[in-house]
Amino acid sequence: MLGALSVVSVGLGSALAFGAQRFPARTEALETWAGALLIVGLGLLGSAVPHLC
Asked: Which of 19, 33, 36, 44 is the most buried (most CB within 10 A)?
């Protein structure tokens, strides 16, 4: 479950970071949310790895 949530979070964060280039007026907010989602997603992935081994 944590692994799936991590993948979704990293994917959504990456999509927001990519989309931030297309909307200059909202770049700062989109990059902030993208960074937060990437950090959360990678943290969840790190906590899920011991359970997979």
From this structure: 44
What domain range is 11 assigned to?
2-48
3-state SS record for 1-53: CHHHHHHHHHHHHHHHHHHCCCCHHHHHHHHHHHHHHHHHHHHHHHHHHHHHC
Q: What is the pTM of this model?
A: 0.79
pLDDT tens track for 13-43: 899 989 888 988 999 999 999 999 999 988 8
**Tokens found for residue 48:** 């899920």
- Reading the block at residue 5, the tokens are 């949530």
For the chain, state the CA radius of gyration: 13
